From TrEMBL:
Pfam name, any one: Aldedh
Protein name, as recorded: 2-hydroxymuconic semialdehyde dehydrogenase
Active site residues according to the UniProt entry: E268
Native source species: Agromyces aurantiacus
PROSITE patterns xref list: ALDEHYDE_DEHYDR_CYS, ALDEHYDE_DEHYDR_GLU
């Protein structure tokens, strides 16, 4: 049941190790120490990164505050929208450098970095330029008992200095998804990229400067969470809000950190997403869709499917077709066009995912595909590879089916009725995304609406309109971002009431 084949190529040249510094008020700033960033493809050291201590975080908050109070704070909406479009153009001009940065940090296939991460980064800036340019204001003409009127209207103001804390799985995509609306709304920002993926954020900061963003509007501090830059930033009294994407437990820690000063938070957190396949679905389409939603980015997308409920009459057919798909995936170097699947982000993450491969067996799973660590040969054995894995024989009582694994794995579980499928899909503390596969239009709408999630897809997955609300319920998050939903977080309205 070994999954995946390696696409052979001679070992890569040893690359020069880069140094990545914090960017504060337009200047490169050393940290308190450096940490190593290794390539998950083969374990090569690729960068030494300066970790920001409390002093650098202080400087970054001060630089962001000063920029907020400078010309940036007085810039009109039309000019900010123009600047965001210039940034999108600059991202596209530097697309190949961004692809290289993203691929170096994550090991994901180049095609994926180009078509998903970098393309979406540019799209994020354009979309929020449109959103802010078109945004209107609430106004109400209030009728008073004496026959006179009052005019109420709301003025939108930026939050101020916003902390943007992002994970490693889609580093540039998720960073720009928060940065673009924050800037569109007129905030200044301190970014804390993941310690696993410092490179694209550092490069983006240079691109922002080239596009004409004033110094200090976006500052980047590097480091870890607890006891490091992340914690120092969220505890800092000078920040006006935190927008965060990452693990649920981290979200909870950030909430505690900001609670003494009652700062707003926007959280996009973990998931344990379900897909439901009805017998009436176009099964070929469904299997291709399930393969994508389970294995894209080596299963390291918050929206990825880890639970697949399949109507019993088609269970065996769907399971064997999906297993074939898993076995056809090509694990390999990111530069090879035939590669479909990269490594996991790190050895530590592989250990976590691997512990679930063991746990699934203890819980009585049958392994349908994968199930272990592949031997890819040569320098690749220094990387953090894992086999795309499918299980049967598990149900909702098992930890493997309840806990977020965040790898290329899924449990296949049969069901008999629509009610049962919905109940099992909703039987989770998370609530991020769901997919329904059916050819019955009415059933598609009916089931999709009953999913207790923020995003419910029918006959597709991860198809995004950037104006639509994105976020989760339960342990999967607080708030929604996307289009005007983002503006609600990144701005504070002041209502003006005039007696007429
Ligand atoms: P993580 O929570 O470990 O780290 C995310 C970021 O938070 C990193 O920059 C990290 O350094 C920082 N951090 C960690 N502890 C902190 C603390 N105490 N205070 C401040 N900052 C802290 O998450 P990860 O492992 O990088 O990413 C994977 C997780 O992200 C998964 O759970 C995945 O589901 C989730 N995710 C969610 C979405 C979504 O939109 N809902 C999108 C992508 C990823």
């Amino acid at each position: 049941t070994s999954a995946g084949t390696i696409h052979g190529r001679p070992p890569r040249r040893t690359r020069a190790t880069r140094t990545i510094r914090n960017l504060i008020g337009g200047a490169a700033v050393d940290g308190i120490r450096t940490f190593d960033k290794v390539d998950p493809v083969d374990g090569t050291l690729i960068a030494r990164v300066h970790e920001a201590g409390p002093e650098q975080v202080d400087l970054a908050v001060a630089a962001a505050r000063a920029a907020f109070e400078g010309p940036w704070g007085r810039m009109g909406v039309a000019e900010r929208a123009r600047l965001l479009r210039r940034i999108a153009d600059a991202v596209e001009r530097h697309a190949e450098e961004l692809v290289a940065a993203e691929v170096g940090d994550t090991g994901k296939p180049e095609t994926l970095a180009r078509d998903l991460d970098v393309a979406r980064a540019a799209a994020n800036f354009r979309s929020f330029a449109d959103t802010i340019a078109a945004a209107g204001l609430d106004s109400y003409l209030t009728e008073l008992p004496d026959g006179r009127n009052a005019l109420n209207y709301a003025v939108r103001k930026p939050l101020g200095v916003v902390a943007v804390i992002v994970p490693w799985n889609l580093p540039l995509l998720l960073l720009t998804w928060k940065l673009a609306p924050a800037l569109a709304a007129g905030n200044t920002v301190i970014v804390k990229p993941s310690e696993e993926t410092p490179s694209s954020a550092a490069l983006l900061a240079e691109i922002l400067a080239e596009a004409g963003l004033p110094d200090g509007v976006v500052n980047v501090v590097h480091g870890f969470g607890v006891g490091s830059a992340g914690e120092a930033l969220t505890r800092h009294p000078g920040i006006d809000g935190v927008t965060f994407t990452g693990e649920t437990a981290t979200g909870s820690a950030i909430m505690r950190a900001v609670s003494p000063r009652v700062r707003p938070v926007s959280f996009e957190l973990g998931g344990k997403n379900a897909a439901v396949v009805f017998a009436d679905a176009d099964l070929e389409l469904a299997v291709a869709g399930l393969a994508r939603s389970t294995f894209l980015n080596t299963g390291q997308v918050c929206l990825c499917t880890e639970r697949i409920y399949i109507e019993r009459t088609v269970f065996d057919d769907v399971a064997s077709a999906l297993a074939d798909h898993a076995r056809r995936l090509r694990l390999g170097r990111p530069q090879d066009a035939a590669t479909t699947t990269g490594p996991l982000i790190s050895q530590a993450h592989r250990q976590k995912v691997h512990s679930y491969l063991d746990l699934a067996l203890e819980e009585g799973a049958t392994v349908l595909a994968g199930g272990g660590i592949p031997s890819l040969g040569g320098d690749l054995d220094g990387g953090s590879w894992i086999e795309p894995t499918l299980w049967t024989g598990l149900d909702n009582s098992h930890r493997t089916v309840r806990e977020e694994i965040f790898g290329p794995v899924a449990a296949l579980i049969p069901f008999d009725t629509e009610e049962e499928a919905i109940a099992m899909a909703n039987d989770t503390d998370y609530g991020l995304a769901a997919v329904t596969w059916t050819s019955d239009l009415t059933r598609g709408h009916r089931v999709a609406q009953r999913m207790r999630v923020g995003m419910s897809w029918v006959n597709t997955w991860y198809l995004r309109d950037l104006r639509s609300p994105f976020g989760g319920v339960g342990l999967s998050g607080i708030g929604r971002e996307g289009g005007r939903h983002s503006l609600e977080f990144y701005t504070e309205p002041t209502n003006v009431c005039v007696q007429l």
